[in-house]
Amino acid sequence: MLSRAGERGARIAIPHRRLVLLLRGGRGLTVLLGSRAPGRLRQCGPMLFAFSIAPAGTPGDSVSPAVADAVRVVRESGLPNETTSMFTTIEAETWDEGMAVVKRAVEAVQAHAPRVSLVLKADIRPGYTGQLASKVERVEAHLEEG
């Protein structure tokens, strides 16, 4: 279902998935997850955030100093995390806890560049903990079965 909200943006609601996107022209994207009742998302349990932050508009090809500062923020957060060549994944108890770490990591990269690119993916699955490792373990088990 898509409905327009005039010049302020468009609202996309997918009721069966309990997802609402509020698109605002030129001012970014607001994502409301969970119930439409305020505060519900914070209570939905552990979730994974996979993200990639890169500086733009800097001289040279290397982004590793800026990325290292972002990864340092993640590791100092104390949250379970994993960094690969393309993404860093964290497991947080709440939306606010995870997004606070992402925000601090973006701010660390902003110290290096006038422009920053952020790619973010979240897996919100109430009632499941330890998914950072167990999701991979389940795939590996299937691979071992042949």
From TrEMBL:
Residues 50-140 form the Thiamine-binding protein domain. InterPro entries: MTH1187/YkoF-like, Thiamine_BP, UPF0045_domain. Pfam families: Thiamine_BP (PF01910). Belongs to the UPF0045 family. This is Thiamine-binding protein domain-containing protein. It comes from Pseudonocardia adelaidensis.
